[in-house]
Design a protein that fits this description.
Layout (H helix, E strand, L loop, with lengths): L3 H15 L3 E8 L10 E6 L5 E6 L5 E7 L3 E7 L6 E6 L6 E8 L5 H9 L5 E4 L2 E5 L11 H7 L3 E3 L5 E3 L2 E2 L2 E4 L2 E2 L5 H5 L7 E10 L1 H6 L6 E9 L6 E11 L4 E11 L2 E10 L8 H7 L4 E2 L5 E2 L22 E14 L4 E24 L7 E24 L4 E25 L5 E27 L6 E25 L4 E28 L2 E24 L2 E4 L5 E19 L3 E20 L4 E22 L3 E12 L3 H4 L3 E2 L5 E4 L7 E13 L6 E21 L5 E24 L4 E18 L2 E19 L3 E16 L7 E16 L3 E14 L4 E16 L5 E8 L7 E6 L3 E7 L5 E14 L5 E3 L7
Parallel strand pairs: 1-7, 13-16, 36-39
Antiparallel strand pairs: 1-4, 2-3, 2-5, 5-6, 8-9, 9-15, 10-11, 11-12, 13-14, 15-16, 17-18, 17-49, 18-19, 19-22, 20-21, 22-23, 23-24, 23-48, 24-25, 25-26, 26-27, 27-28, 28-29, 29-30, 29-31, 31-32, 32-33, 33-34, 34-37, 35-36, 37-38, 38-39, 39-40, 40-41, 41-42, 42-43, 43-44, 44-45, 45-46, 46-49, ...
Pfam families: CarboxypepD_reg, OMP_b-brl_3
Protein name: Outer membrane beta-barrel protein
GO cellular component, one term: cell outer membrane
């Protein structure tokens, strides 16, 4: 594999370098000689009208389509309301540019409109800022999902994890007929809807909801794909069910059913399996966890550890899922256009997860000379049952006023049993201490979120006002017991037998008011006010178990209450122009952090009262160049308050060798973030580039300070340090090779972080640098698709005062996948991954080959059924490995995995058309996967 990739790339680059390319240019006018901007210009194969290249005219009506190979073509120009223009073209000998001169379009007649509606559709149409692909012009295999259709579209990239990019930029939202499909996770639509249900794929940069309503462009954009259904699918019920059984008692079942009728969308997704298939992505993760936390200043952060949220919901960000998981999950989603003014949507999810994880950890402690190595073996069995419902109502009172109400309700039941064996070793390999801990816990989590947004657009153009209020509440009750036996090198030992009960409640209120006043000449002044109150209460009681008696441990028990308030008053100046917009603003935020700690060992209360004043400047600039090129600059500041756990000055000894104590003297962190990104898309060559640079500088940053005593017991406490700075850069470039039906994709990600680590009260400046590079070659043809890729991640950790602890490690992945459709009804698919983990400093080197193969056959009327045989981990070499590093240690995890298994599955689909009277018609059966 290592030798194959360079050879393949050399051959491809050589072909690209020596293949002669041509360009077609000209100008498009109407019948009165007025330029027609954004007219669609196509170069089609003369023999079958298949798409070769496309582009759009600029504001002067000019166009130039590059990257066309020598041959016979059909030239086509179209513009809404005008007759299309056709002409056969042949490139003259010795010329590399064909000048079409001036092309004049004639107004379209009614008779011709009817003919065009019934005739063959253009593969691509450009409508101002929207690129619209005709799905029927791009052939997909029978039963293909929307994801396979997107892979065929020019300029669209779909990576191995199913993430979609267009024009080099990540697509964060996919809608169906303009409506959300199971929230905002694009994969819910791309992986579950059938490709042959789609009429058009529309790609555009969506403005923010507030900009759309107010008519004032705030420069915020979100790359969006809208899937426009075929007319017959808008009154139909369709979906698929799948069931499979395998060796080692493996099983998998899945159902996807959709009912669309008269502006109503009702969808159901369900699954049950024990093959680590989770079925939910990032959006469902945030939904299950009650959403994300928001910092003062507007930034959103997410807390996650070990791929699992605090309530046990799995988060699969695209990597391999390790451990053994048994999952039952399902969801119901509806969208209903009640009338012209009112739209309602909602969803219900449930998730029942049972998980078994066996984890072996080797940790190199970089700054602790006396304890350079730690090993840990953990066995964890846990269960999580989660229910969550969401609702949204968008009501347009009239042309000037709208109200939007959203709400969510969630409930979790959690249980966990954990056994942990930890050994700390000295410089000569001797055991400094060892612990054997057994614990179990059960808990309930209840969450409630609701919000209301009122928007008013005044009669005077540009005058706008909005008022929003958000209320949320979270209640968490847990009970646990743990037994721990600790031995030390000096022969001493310690036993802990304890039971704990903890109740925590969090309530949040957020109110915001914004008013925008026009200043003339497309200039605006926005004033805003935000009030936020965050009340947190916690009661932790720890009991020592002595025989049948339970004795309150006052040193480890406490009650805590904190109230974080802030008032923020701000003003923003906005300037809108045809090609650019600018926002400059600042806010004054006054924060109060009030807390009360009841220490049981002294039976006294300790008050915490602090006030903070911060100025929060912001700036945003966006510039739209010609020919699909855009530059965005964004600068913002924010304040992050400490969490309730970080502020509690009471020890948590659930891990007796790693004790955690909060710090009531913490102060909020102040963050500066700057982002600059640039993207370009050449509609003629279909080349795309996206680049981003981000800088985040934090003062009074909160880090975890550690101290280690003579028995090598580690105590962690959060403290404020002077700074934490991170600089990151990201870029990707896509290069189509049309003559080979191929694409080359290059990507790079760089990060440089400077922070301060604290060990035994000594601060040490730490620099962590990482670089990730990837290259992918993909081939797309009617019956054969394949791709090869290579990913490389390198990380270096450097200590200013301790160079001997500097570390460097590599993670490498080589992968290939192929799909071949043959003999009309057969399909074979194979994926191969070769994972390599290197760390020369610790002499760690391991390579893992993974091979999965499946063969399927479609049968029954209209290919109603599909039988598939899948071999997973065919080489039987799967082992879960994670190699990570931070400022204090490098850690390698080895986890249990599914191992090798074979599965035979059957998929069946129901597809019925619903007539306007509500009766089912047809009954043809087809598979959608």
């Amino acid at each position: 594999m290592k030798k194959l990739l360079p050879i393949l790339l050399f051959l491809l680059i050589s072909h690209v370098s020596f293949a002669q390319k041509y360009a077609v240019k000209g100008r498009v006018l109407d019948n009165t000689s007025v330029a027609l901007p954004s007219a669609t210009v196509l170069v089609l194969q003369a023999k079958d009208s298949s798409l070769v290249n496309f582009g759009a005219t600029d504001v002067q009506g000019a166009f130039e389509i590059k990257g066309v190979s020598k041959g016979d073509y059909l030239f086509k120009v179209s513009f809404l309301g005008f007759d299309p223009y056709f002409q056969k073209i042949v490139f003259p000998e010795g010329a590399t540019v064909l000048d079409m001169g001036t092309v004049k379009l004639q107004p379209q007649s009614n008779q011709l409109k009817e003919v065009l509606v019934q005739g063959e559709k253009s593969p691509v149409v450009i409508k101002k800022d929207t690129i619209e692909f005709n799905a029927g012009s791009f052939k997909t295999q029978p039963n293909a999902a929307v994801e396979e259709l997107l892979k065929k579209l020019p300029g669209v990239e779909v990576d191995a994890e199913g993430n979609v990019s267009m024009q080099g930029e990540r697509v964060n939202r996919v809608t169906v007929d303009g409506k959300e499909f199971f929230g905002r996770d694009p994969k819910m639509a791309t992986k579950n809807l059938p490709a042959d249900a789609i009429d058009k794929v529309q790609v555009f940069d969506k403005k923010s909801d507030q900009a759309t309503f107010s008519g004032i462009d705030d420069g915020q954009r979100e790359k969006t794909i809208n899937l426009q259904l075929k007319e017959e699918k808008r009154n139909s019920a369709f979906g698929n069910v799948m069931a499979g059984v395998g060796t080692d008692e493996r099983y998998q079942a899945r159902a996807s059913i959709n009912r669309f009728k008269k502006g109503q969308q009702l969808s159901f997704l369900g699954m049950a399996n024990n093959v680590n298939s989770q079925g939910f992505g990032f959006d469902e993760y945030t939904n299950f966890n009650g959403g994300m936390s928001r910092m003062g200043g507007g930034m959103i952060i997410i807390s996650n550890s070990n791929g699992t949220a605090g309530n046990g919901v799995p988060l699969n960000m695209g990597g391999r899922m390790n451990g053994l998981m048994n999952t039952q999950a399902g969801g119901l989603n509806f969208n209903n256009q009640l009338n012209k003014k009112t739209e309602a949507n909602g969803s219900y999810f449930f998730n029942n997860l049972n998980q078994n994880i066996i984890k072996d950890v080797e940790r190199d402690n970089l700054l602790n000379a006396g304890n350079p190595r730690t090993t840990e073996r953990t066995t964890q069995d846990g269960g999580n049952l989660n229910h969550r419902g969401t609702f949204s109502l968008d009501y347009k009172l009239d042309s000037l006023n709208s109200v939007k109400v959203t709400g969510s309700l969630s409930y979790n039941e959690i249980s966990q049993n954990l056994n942990s064996l930890i050994n700390n070793f000295g410089t000569n390999g001797q055991i400094l201490n060892a612990s054997n801990t057994r614990s179990n816990s059960d808990g309930d989590i209840f969450g409630l979120n609701s919000s209301i947004l009122f928007r008013h657009r005044f009669a005077k153009a540009g005058r706008f006002m909005s008022v929003n209020a958000d209320v949320s509440a979270n209640q968490n009750d847990t009970d646990g017991a743990y037994n721990s036996d600790v031995t030390f090198a000096n022969g001493q030992s310690r036993q802990i037998r304890q039971h704990n009960e903890q109740e925590s409640d969090t309530r949040n209120l957020n109110i915001g008011v914004s008013h925008t006043e026009p200043l003339g000449n497309r200039q605006y002044l926005e004033s805003n006010y935000t009030y936020r109150a965050n009340l947190s209460e916690s009661n932790r009681e720890v009991y020592d178990l002595e025989g049948s008696n339970s004795i309150l441990n006052a040193d480890l028990s406490n009650m805590y209450e904190s109230l974080y308030l802030y008032h923020r008053l701000g003003v923003n100046y906005k300037l809108n122009r045809l090609k650019y917009n600018l926002t400059l603003g600042t806010s004054l935020q006054q924060s109060d952090l009030n807390g009360e700690v009841w220490l049981r060992n002294t039976d006294k209360k300790q008050d915490i009262n602090r006030d903070f004043y911060n100025i929060l400047p912001t700036a945003r600039f966006n510039y739209d160049f010609a020919n699909n090129r855009r530059l965005n600059f964004n600068y913002e500041t924010m304040v992050q308050e400490p969490s309730i756990r970080q502020l509690q000055p009471v020890a948590d000894i659930s891990n007796p060798l790693n004790i955690y104590i909060g710090n009531e003297n913490l102060i909020p962190s102040y963050m500066h973030q700057l982002r600059l990104n640039y993207n370009s898309f050449d509609a003629g060559t279909l080349r795309s580039f996206f680049g981003m640079v981000s800088v985040m500088h934090t003062t009074n940053a909160i880090v975890s300070a550690q101290s280690i005593d003579e028995n090598s017991i580690r105590t962690t406490r959060p403290v404020n340090v002077d700074y934490n700075t991170m600089v990151s850069a990201f870029a990707n470039y896509t290069y189509p090779i049309k003559k080979l039906n191929s694409r080359l994709h290059f990507g790079a990600n760089l990060r440089d972080q400077n922070t301060i680590s604290v060990l035994n009260d000594v601060e040490n400046d730490v620099n962590v640098r990482s670089a990730t590079g990837n290259i992918r070659y993909s081939y797309q043809k009617d019956d054969l698709n394949f791709s090869v890729r290579a990913d490389l991640t390198a990380q270096r950790t450097k200590y200013e005062d301790s160079n001997q602890n500097d570390q460097f490690f590599l993670n490498k992945t080589y992968a290939a996948d192929a799909n071949y459709h043959f003999l009309k009804h057969y399909n074979i698919n194979a994926t191969f991954d070769y994972l390599v983990y290197d760390n020369n400093a610790t002499n760690f080197n391991q390579a893992i080959p993974l091979l999965n193969v499946s063969v399927s056959r479609q049968f029954l009327k209209n290919n109603a059924g599909e039988l598939k045989l899948t071999a997973t981990n065919l080489l039987d070499r799967d082992t879960g490995i994670n190699q990570t590093a931070n400022a204090l240690y490098i850690e390698r995890e080895t986890l249990n995995s599914l191992g090798q298994y074979y599965m035979l599955s059957f998929t069946y689909n129901i597809n019925k058309h619903l007539n306007p009277m509500g009766n089912s018609q047809g009954g043809s059966i087809r598979i959608f996967r």
